[in-house]
Design brief:
It is built from six helices and seven strands; from the N terminus they run βααββββββαααα. It is an alpha+beta fold. It has a single domain, classed as Alpha-D-Glucose-1,6-Bisphosphate, Chain A, domain 4 (2-Layer Sandwich), CATH 3.30.530. The protein has a seven-stranded antiparallel sheet with strand order 1-7-6-5-4-3-2. Helix 2 packs across helix 4 and helix 4 runs antiparallel to helix 6. The longest helix has 24 residues. The chain is globular and about 45 Å long. About 40% of the residues are buried.
Length: about 180
């Protein structure tokens, strides 16, 4: 699966926004937590409903090939108990365009368990809705008024992870919502 979105902000601002855990948590439907395990490994917890299958998924994201603020790759492995599992990889890039920043991604996924038994039409619809919801919320955050000087979270988040957070969680949701 491939996709691209134009984010209405400069590339450096998009990178910073995608590094802010509070912005990501608000924009990613079902995201409960993101925890840094090492410099390149993170644990995530999300809740997802795909047709009749609703579960809490725990997963790990591993990032590689970092080229801030331009690109990265990541791998994902997640378990949703009886609902099944998802694993895969994603490649992401940011480029500057006249209207803002283009975020492009390619996701490869494999799912098993009850998830693999759901029809592809339903899975495709859920995957599209998850991506649309994230980008609508993120674009609104990025296009909104600049934060007041007293609000340091987006600019000074210590130890914030690179851009992969958002695409990693989107990839995780796609992985949970798509058959390979």
């Amino acid at each position: 699966m491939t996709g691209a979105q134009i984010i209405p902000a400069l590339q450096a601002e998009v990178w910073r926004g995608l590094n802010d855990p509070e912005i990501l948590k608000v924009c990613i439907s079902g995201c409960e937590s993101i925890e840094k395990l090492t410099g390149t490994k993170y644990a995530i917890v999300t809740t997802a409903a795909i047709g009749p299958v609703k579960a809490r998924f725990r997963g790990k994201l591993l990032l590689a090939d970092l080229d801030p603020p331009n690109s990265y790759s990541l791998s994902f492995d997640g378990q949703g108990g009886a609902a099944g599992f998802a694993k895969g990889s994603a490649k992401v890039s940011l480029t500057t365009e006249a209207a803002g920043t283009r975020l492009s991604y390619t996701v490869k996924a494999q799912v098993g368990g009850k998830l693999a038994q759901i029809g592809s039409r339903l899975i495709d619809g859920v995957a599209k809705k998850l991506a649309d919801d994230f980008f609508a919320a993120f674009n609104q955050k990025m296009a909104g008024p600049a934060p007041a000087a007293a609000e340091p979270s987006a600019e000074t988040a210590p130890g914030a992870a690179p851009l992969w957070w958002v695409v990693g969680i989107i990839a995780a949701m796609f992985l949970l919502a798509r058959l390979s």
